[in-house]
Amino acid sequence: MCGIVGYIGKQNAVDVLIDGLRKLEYRGYDSSGIAIVDHNGLNVQKAEGKLANLQEKIKDDNLHSSIGIGHTRWATHGRPSDYNAHPHTSQNGRFAVVHNGIVENYL
User: With contact defined as beta carbons under 8 Å apart, do 21 and 73 qualify?
Assistant: First the structure.
């Protein structure tokens, strides 16, 4: 199982995403991540382990945005790692996705 949360609005998306992931953490606890669009473009932050690891990683980053997605993962394929954590980004870094399940036809 995994948990997915998204936000578009006037509040800081980072706070809303982290709060939403905290509520969904029981659905996935081996890694978590968020993707926001800020003044620098797409900003993706991921961490292996419990959500607290992601919170610690971003606590001093002063991230602000009004739009974002978040994911908490329970690995069924691929070992728990920062690399395997969601969100995944396109090769050109212009978009990020999260999903539940296995993408069989990715090649």
Answer: no
How many whole angstroms separate alpha carbon 83 and alpha carbon 13?
A: 23
Cα–Cα dist 58/100, whole Å: 24
Contact 100/69 with Cβ under 8 angstroms?
Answer: no
What's the one-letter identity of residue 83?
A: Y
pLDDT tens digits for range 70-100: 999 988 778 899 999 999 999 999 999 998 8
Q: How far is CA 3 from the centre of its chain?
A: 10
- What would the two tokens of residue 4 be? 């997915």
CB of 55 within 8 A of CB of 72? Answer: no
Indicate the pLDDT class of residue 23, thresholds 50, 70 and 90: very high
Rounded Cα gap, residues 32 and 17, in angstroms: 11
Q: Which residue has the tokens 């991540």?
A: 33
Neighbours of 14 (CB within 10 A): 22
